[in-house]
Amino acid sequence: MKSQYMIKPMTQTTNSELNNSRRRFVFGASAMLALMSTPFPKNAFANALSQSLSQLSGKVFDLSIDYKMVNFTGKSARATVVNQLLPAPLLRWKEGETVTLRVKNNLDQDSSIHWHGIILPTEMDGVPGFSFDGIKPGETFEYQFTVQQSGTYWYHSHSGYQEQTGLFGAIVIDPATPDPVIYDRDYVIMLSDWSDEAPENIYAKLKKQADYYNYRERTVMDFFSDVNKNGLANTWNARSMWNNARMSDSDISDVTGSTYTYLMNGNPPQQGWQGLFEQGEKVRLRFINSSAMTIFDVRIPGLKMSVVASDGQNIQPVSVDEFRIGVAETYDVVIEPEVDNAYCIFAQSIDRTGFTVGNLTSDASLHALIPPMDPRPVLSHSDMGMDMSGMDMSGMDHSKMDMGAGDMSGMEHSKMNMGGGDMPSMHHSKMAMGGGDMPGMDHSKMAMGGGDMPGMDHSKMAMGDGDMSGMDHSKMAMGTAKATVSGLGLAGFGSNNEIKHIDTEFDPQVDMRADAPKSGLHDPGIGLRDHQQQFNRKVLTYGDIKGLHPTYDTRQPSREIQLHLTGNMNRYMWSVNGVKFMDAAPLEFEYGERLRITLVNDTMMTHPMHLHGMWSELETGDADFIPRKHTVLVQPGSKISYLVTADAKGQWAYHCHLLFHMPGMFRKVVVK
Amino acid sequence: MNKTNLVALGLLSLSASLTSSAVFAGGNDDPLLTKVMLDQFEKGVDPQDPTQFSAQAWLGYDLNKLWLKTEGEYSNSDKQDLEIQALYSKPIAPYWDVQFGIKTDIKPTPNRNWAVIGVQGLAPYFFDIDAALFIGEQGRTAMRLSAEYELLITQKLILTPEVEVNLFGKDDAELGIGSGLSDVSAGLRLRYEIVREFAPYIGVDWRQKLGNTADYARNEGEETQETQFVIGFRAWF
Question: Where in this chain does the entry annotate a coiled-coil region (chain B) (predicted)?
Fold first, then answer.
């Protein structure tokens, strides 16, 4: 094990010129910014050879948006930057303070800045057409709002494709009360994807040839090797579904490493980012995925990561080896590195076409080895939301159940307190599982006493789409056998409603409908599902996330909105319920109401869905500690539910945060 | 409905959608785009072999496109083929477009004009299909079916088998076309995509005239079957 993290003296062979010029501009900018910023003691950034983020703190910030020529690939290309920096400066705020941000647009086109995940008045949200008219060329817009939260967030342009060309930066808000997270030093780790191609051209190419950037299509060679391995008949059968569907099982990312260079804090992989720590320090890493199109899988070989916050909000710490971070999500982890060692912060793209790295060390001369990328994921039938009810599940031993997608990890029969109980008719073995989703079914709290449940016949349970997430046995009144399964389902446990595809989903712009979507809650996601068995890595799932703070709004949802994420990969069209934003009526929330949104992913892509202005309270199976998120990954062919308290009047954007999906897969939300 | 009306209708709906673009918070999901595809541009290896091309272009939006198709062949000034189609293309299913418009055969002379209705799309098992019905003057009708498949040897080395058949409703003696199944052709091209947009290829092309068309050819002292090896390139932008 140790040899993998062998240390070697750092050789600075490549990009020394680039390095120098980059350092110069960083220092130059910092000097300029130092005039108006007071450094925060906890955030003393190490002097790394690579570029680190420049920080601005205080209450008043002057940000200027400009074009700037950058070079990440050996070729010069034009970026859109803030204060001449890519990433834009890290803004450090303090909870409870009122911040003023004067943003000047020096571009020859409209611009804007959206404060991602920040709870603020609608007119400060920075979405052109919703919050304001955008910032015209040469104009300055003054944002002002009171910071009501703490944690790790970010900001980015909401105009055109400026986010792809570098217009993004980190926000760290220090809490007004003592931070429940104990750490000695913190770093922001900002992940992004850079292309020398103009984003308009990337989008146009995808419209003209949707698999333009996919150089992993199946070849004749793959076919022959599969035939050798599995025989002709099996290979043919396995292929026939994809062939009939005219879809590709290698279609993981629309835009890949064939055009992207992945950056960590603005450093390309050959250069890397570097962070230093000292003996005995607990280091808090604040990961932000500010990519346009790239979902990353992050790990630090040799270190356990304690995940302490998700989307800025503190969670009950979860110890993991690896986590997936969707576009726009943030995760804070605390690590305890050993002195005289170097660790590689390794972030590989979901499709394994590239990665970006950081070097975390106590000694700048030590450099961790970069691990190889993991095997690339291949999509399966379940990623199309296909009905697996034909699957024979009888005789399955629940205690050793290995579900692949891991959809039953919340079902804890092992802790069932049976007392002297008698359950003769409880036939789990005959249960028709449908999509096989039982996340909230927690038998562990079942108070059986000396009880007798002769009538409880699970074998006849109609499972439909296989969703029992709201079936909370702990609150089941046994004597009167009160039904809790019907209706909306309890807060914290997700939806009970059946999956319905409306008429607009049957038009040419929709190429797939998930008929039996499973829950994405306990699914680590494509390409990560076998990492526990294969590499003994614990991978974070949404099911692991419980809020640190008790649920803020304990009301039950009064209604549920089911939205289907739809698209046509071949035509490269994206929509919600088959209707693109331009043709869609706004979603209306009533001010003050508590509602549930259930997202059903009728595509084979993983979509990070972002609701502005209000929290997305992810129903992860614990009603008392529902975690708050601003961006929620919806797994392919899967569904997921969250609760929303409509406590912010105004017009809000609600969209997929993959930049080239966003124009179509977008809704206006009106709270009135 | 005559063909002029059909085209007018197509252009009208295209222009209607041309004016409906606007700027949104998330950007324009459906910009006006053009794609020009030179699918084949090739020369037979034998000096007597013709130079041949086949190209398509579209202009428009996700759901409304003006689609042009042209193909031609040049052996010498007496032996030329050139046809152009102008079509309005609209999706009817996730993988299928219906197309209608006009086709004009400029060479050989006398030239012929046709109204066109067809479907183009991707069939299960990834077959690219183009099937069209042509309705001409004086009761002439014709049909063309073509299918193409892309077999990836590697990500950049791609083998493309294709077949095409042509049928005609009645004899056209002036052009040496007989009624019924008139010709079938098959090609096999191996291209290397230096970049996605440009790929040189080598290939073999086989054509067989059939039925009355073959009789006309024999009467003119022409071959009814041709096989040629070709080199060429494919490009798009």
Answer: none
Burial environment of residue A190 by CB neighbours within 10 A (0 to 12, 13 to 18, 19 or more): buried
Q: Which domains does chain A have, with CATH numbers?
A: 2-198+260-367 (2.60.40.420), 378-419+436-445+458-476+487-672 (2.60.40.420)
- DSSP state, residue A266: T
Q: Find the helix packing angle between A220-230 and A232-245, rounded to 10°.
A: 140
For an interface test with B, the pick among A80, A501, A573 (most B C-beta atoms closer than 10 Å) comes out as A573
Pairing of strands A666-671, A587-589: parallel
Q: What is the pLDDT of residues A351-361, one digit of tens each?
A: 999 999 999 99
Instruction: Please indicate whether residue A457 or residue B45 has the higher confidence score (pLDDT).
Output: B45
Q: What is the 3-state secondary structure (H, E, C) of A304-366?
A: CEEEEEECCEEEEEEEECEEEECCCCEEEEEECCCCCCEEEEEEEECCCCCEEEEEEECCCCE
Q: Which of B27, B33, B196 sits opposite A161 (nearest CB)?
A: B27
Residue with tokens 């209450």: A59
- In Å, how far is B133's CA from the nearest CA of chain A? 23
Superfamily of chain region B3-7+36-42+50-236: monomeric porin ompg (2.40.160.40)
Sign of CA dihedral A481, A485, A487, A490: positive
Task: For chain A, list residues whose CB is within 8 angstroms of any CB belonging to chain B.
Answer: 127-130, 158, 160-161, 200, 203-205, 207-209, 212, 215-221, 243-246, 508-511, 568, 570-571, 573-574, 580-582, 653, 655, 662-664, 666
Partner residue opposite B155 with nearest CB, options A219, A243, A510: A219
Q: Determine the pLDDT at residue B170.
A: 93
Interface of B to A at Cβ within 8 Å reads 22-31, 33, 35, 62-63, 91-96, 122-126, 151-156, 196, 236
CA A597 to chain B, closest CA, distance in angstroms equals 21
Closest to A527 measured CA to CA, from A290, A323, A292, A224: A323
Q: Which parts of A106-184 are beta strand (E)?
A: 114-116, 140-146, 151-156, 168-174
Q: Please, what sign has the CA dihedral across residues B180, B183, B186, B187?
A: negative
Pairwise CB contact (< 8 Å): A209 & B63: no
Indicate yes or no: CB of B95 within 8 angstroms of CB of A570: yes
Give the chain B residue whose CA is nearest to the CA of A579.
Answer: B29
Q: Kindly report the length of chain B.
A: 237
- Given a cut of 80, whether residue A290 has pLDDT beyond it is yes
Cα–chain center distance at A500: 25
Q: DSSP letter for A579, please.
A: B
Give the mean pLDDT per block of 10 residues along chain B (237 residues): 46 42 61 96 93 97 97 89 97 96 94 96 94 96 97 95 96 92 97 97 96 93 93 97
- Return the higher-pLDDT residue of A669 and A17: A669
A328: left (phi over 0), alpha (psi -120 to 50) or beta: left
